[in-house]
C-alpha cells in the first residue's frame, strides 16, 4: 500500500490486519489522524448486551504519540511471515506472534525526537493490555500482551521482553512457515489469482485460533462490522478450509458451538421444541444477538427478522461437525461432543416440522439463505439440510430405535420442492408464481437488488440475493437429485443478484463442477476482488471472511473436486484449459500431504495414504 489515501485508508487497514488467531490488529499507521480507524480485537471478547453486544475494541499497541502530519510513505504486509512494515519518517516492523498468540512486538527506527521514551504501561479493562517499551537512540522496541487475566497479560509481556525481539521474530517466522506448508495452494497458470489466493489464505489462517473455543465473527479479527457476531459464515464457509488443513482450529470453532449447546437447548424449550436451536447471530453467551432493525443506505429503516426465521443455521452447525469428522476421523469428537451436536440438532428438526393430512412433512415460516424473501414455507435449502441432519443423526450408533425410526420417517416425508419433470427445485412454496425477473438481464452484477427494486417489490420477484437451492448442490450434493446441477444452475444463476459477498465464490465452485469455465472464472475473479476493490463498500468494517473461505472451497471443492466422505477423500477435478495444475496442502485423517491436480491426472506425495483411480475419479484412503 503506497502513500496515504484518507478515503481508502480504512479499507487498507482491514486488508493489512495482523492477527495470530487470538488477537487481531488493524494495519493502521503508527501515527494517524481521523481518517484512520485503529482496532485491536481479542477473539471472543465482547461487550454490551443483547443485539448491541459487540466485539470489544481494545487499546492499540501499534500507535505512537507523534506529530499529526507524520504519514507513512508505504505499508507492506509480508504474507509469508505475517509482518507489517511501514516506511516513512518512522520506519518500523511489527507482528502479532503466531507462536505466542496474544503477544505483540514492534520495532521502530526514527529520529529520537519522534520516539516516545521507554517504560511500562498497563491498561486495565475486560482485557488487560500490558506494554513494555525500550528506547535506545533511534531504535524503539515495544513488547505487549493482551489477556482477560491481568496477571497473564503482565507475565506474557515480561516474558516477551526477556525473550527479546530477535528470537520472537524467529519463532514467529517459523510458525508462519509451518502454517504455509500445511495449507499452501498453487494455481499454476494464473499468477493474478495466485497472489489474491495468498492474501485469502493468510487471513483465513490468521483469524482462527486453536486453543479452547474460537468465536469467528463475520469479519474475523479484522474489523467490527456485524459487531463481530458469529453467523453460518463461520460453520459453512470458514470451517471447511481449517478442517482440511489445520483441524485443531476447526475443532476450536466447533467447541464454540458445543459450549453453547445449553443456550441452544434453552431456546428450543422456550419455543416449545426439543433438542437445540442455535441462534442466527451469536456472541459470548450463545443467546440470540441478531438486531431487530437496520437502516438501509437509502435511509429506510427495516425490521430484521432473521433472528426469528433464519433457522437453517441449526443444520449448518451439524454440517460443520460432519465436515470436520469426515476430514479428521476424530473418534473422541464423534463419540462425544460431535454426536451431541448431531443428535440435538436432529431432535430440534423432528420437533419443528408439521405433518399435513396427506402425511407430507413441512417446515413453515423460515428465511432461507436468500434473505430477499421472508418468511417462506418449505424453503428447499432448509428442508433438505434438515433432512440430511435427521438422516446423518439416525445413522449414528447407539441412537434409540424409536427415535431413529421417527427421524427416518420425517426425513422421507419432508417436501423439498423438486419437480421431476423439469429437474428444478422450487426455492420455496410459491416461488415459481412470482414475477419472473431475470436480474442478469436487468443490471450489472453483483448488485444490491433489494435497493435497486425496493424491499417490498423484491419479495414479489424471482430475484435471489445468494445461492439457496444451489447451496445444496454445493454442500450436500448426495442429497439432491442426481444430474440436477445443470438445470438448477440454468434457472437460478441468472436470477441471482449476488447481493451477498457469500455468493460469487459458491457460484464459481458450482459452475466449475458443471464444466462452465468462463463464468466460473469470472465469478471467482469477482470473489477475489470483494475486498481488494471494496466491491460492497463495506471493507472498512473488516474483511469478508466467508468470501475467503468460499474462495478456497471454489478451488478445492469446485475445480479440484475434493470431497471428504466418511469412507475416503474423493478427487474429481475440472481444470480450466488455461491452468497447468492446481496444488493444495491438505491433511486427511491426521496425515498431512500435498495434492497435485493436472490435466493428465492426480498425484499425492504421501506414502501413508493410498491413491487409486476408480472410474473417472480418484480416491484417497487412509489405511
Ligand atoms: O451470513 C450472511 C448472510 O448469508 C447474508 N448477509 C450477511 C451475513 C453475514 O455475512
TrEMBL record:
GO terms for molecular function: carbohydrate binding; glycosyltransferase activity; hydrolase activity, hydrolyzing O-glycosyl compounds. Keywords: Glycosidase, Hydrolase. It comes from the Bacteria. Residues 198-553 form the Glycoside hydrolase family 65 central catalytic domain. The keyword Hydrolase applies. Residues 2-85 form the Glycoside hydrolase family 65 N-terminal domain. Residues 564-610 form the Glycoside hydrolase family 65 C-terminal domain. SUPFAM superfamilies: Galactose mutarotase-like, Six-hairpin glycosidases. It holds the Pfam family Glyco_hydro_65C. GO terms for biological process: carbohydrate metabolic process. PANTHER family: GLYCOSYL HYDROLASE-RELATED (PTHR11051), PROTEIN-GLUCOSYLGALACTOSYLHYDROXYLYSINE GLUCOSIDASE (PTHR11051:SF8). This is Glycoside hydrolase family 65 protein.
Amino acid at each position: 500500500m503506497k502513500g496515504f489515501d484518507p478515503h481508502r485508508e480504512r479499507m487498507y487497514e482491514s486488508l493489512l490486519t495482523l492477527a495470530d488467531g487470538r488477537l487481531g490488529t488493524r494495519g493502521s499507521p503508527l501515527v494517524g489522524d481521523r481518517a484512520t480507524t485503529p482496532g485491536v480485537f481479542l477473539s471472543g471478547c465482547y461487550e454490551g448486551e443483547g443485539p448491541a453486544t459487540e466485539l470489544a475494541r481494545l487499546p492499540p499497541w501499534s500507535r505512537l504519540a507523534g506529530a499529526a502530519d507524520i504519514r507513512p510513505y508505504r505499508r507492506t504486509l509480508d504474507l509469508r511471515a505475517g509482518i507489517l512494515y511501514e516506511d516513512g519518517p518512522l520506519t518500523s516492523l511489527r507482528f502479532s506472534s503466531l507462536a505466542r498468540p496474544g503477544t505483540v512486538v514492534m520495532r521502530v527506527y526514527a529520529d529520537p525526537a519522534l520516539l516516545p521514551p521507554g517504560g511500562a504501561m498497563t491498561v486495565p479493562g475486560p482485557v488487560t493490555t500490558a506494554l513494555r517499551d525500550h528506547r535506545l537512540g533511534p531504535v524503539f522496541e515495544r513488547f505487549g500482551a493482551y489477556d482477560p487475566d491481568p496477571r497473564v497479560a503482565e507475565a506474557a509481556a515480561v516474558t516477551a521482553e526477556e525473550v527479546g525481539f530477535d528470537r520472537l521474530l524467529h519463532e514467529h517466522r517459523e510458525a508462519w512457515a509451518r502454517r504455509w506448508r500445511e495449507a499452501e495452494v498453487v494455481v499454476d497458470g494464473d499468477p493474478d489469482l495466485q497472489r489474491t489466493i495468498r492474501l485469502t489464505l493468510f487471513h483465513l489462517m490468521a483469524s482462527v485460533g486453536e486453543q479452547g473455543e474460537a468465536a469467528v465473527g463475520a469479519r474475523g479479527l479484522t474489523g467490527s462490522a456485524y459487531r463481530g457476531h458469529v453467523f453460518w459464515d463461520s460453520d459453512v464457509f470458514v470451517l471447511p478450509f481449517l478442517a482440511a488443513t489445520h483441524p485443531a482450529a476447526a475443532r476450536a470453532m466447533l467447541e464454540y458451538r458445543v459450549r453453547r449447546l445449553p443456550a441452544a437447548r434453552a431456546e428450543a424449550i422456550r419455543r416449545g421444541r426439543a433438542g437445540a436451536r442455535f441462534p442466527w447471530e451469536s456472541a459470548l453467551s450463545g443467546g440470540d444477538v441478531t438486531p431487530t432493525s437496520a437502516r438501509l443506505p437509502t435511509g429506510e429503516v427495516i425490521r430484521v427478522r432473521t433472528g426469528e426465521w433464519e433457522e437453517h443455521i441449526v443444520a449448518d452447525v451439524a454440517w460443520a461437525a460432519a465436515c470436520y469428522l469426515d476430514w479428521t476421523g476424530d473418534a473422541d469428537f464423534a463419540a462425544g461432543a460431535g454426536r451431541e451436536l448431531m443428535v440435538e440438532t436432529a431432535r430440534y428438526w423432528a420437533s419443528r416440522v408439521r405433518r399435513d393430512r396427506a402425511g407430507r412433512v413441512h417446515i413453515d415460516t423460515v428465511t432461507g439463505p436468500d434473505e430477499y424473501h421472508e418468511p417462506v414455507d418449505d424453503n428447499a435449502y432448509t428442508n433438505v439440510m434438515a433432512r440430511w441432519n435427521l438422516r446423518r443423526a439416525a445413522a449414528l450408533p447407539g441412537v434409540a430405535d424409536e427415535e431413529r425410526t421417527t427421524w427416518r420417517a420425517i426425513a422421507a416425508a419432508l417436501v423439498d420442492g423438486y419437480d421431476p419433470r423439469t429437474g428444478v427445485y422450487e426455492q420455496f412454496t410459491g416461488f415459481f408464481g412470482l414475477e419472473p425477473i431475470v436480474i442478469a438481464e436487468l443490471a450489472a452484477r453483483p448488485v444490491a437488488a433489494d435497493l435497486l427494486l425496493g424491499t417490498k417489490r423484491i419479495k414479489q420477484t424471482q430475484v435471489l440475493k445468494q445461492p439457496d437451492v444451489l447451496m445444496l448442490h454445493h454442500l450436500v450434493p448426495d442429497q439432491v437429485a442426481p444430474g440436477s446441477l445443470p438445470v438448477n444452475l440454468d434457472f437460478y444463476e441468472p436470477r441471482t443478484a449476488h447481493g451477498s459477498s457469500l455468493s460469487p465464490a459458491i457460484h464459481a465452485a458450482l459452475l466449475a463442477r458443471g464444466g462452465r469455465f468462463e463464468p466460473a472464472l469470472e465469478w471467482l475473479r469477482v470473489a477475489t476482488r470483494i475486498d481488494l476493490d471494496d466491491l460492497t463498500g463495506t471493507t472498512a468494517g473488516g474483511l469478508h471472511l466467508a468470501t475467503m473461505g468460499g474462495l478456497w472451497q471454489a478451488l478445492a471443492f469446485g475445480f479440484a473436486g475434493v470431497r471428504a466422505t466418511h469412507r475416503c477423500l474423493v478427487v474429481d477435478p475440472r481444470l480450466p484449459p488455461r491452468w497447468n495444475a492446481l496444488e493444495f496442502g491438505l491433511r486427511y485423517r491426521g496425515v498431512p500431504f500435498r495434492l497435485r491436480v493436472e490435466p493428465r491426472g492426480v498425484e499425492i506425495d504421501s506414502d501413508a495414504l493410498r491413491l487409486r483411480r476408480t472410474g473417472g475419479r480418484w480416491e484417497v484412503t487412509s489405511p
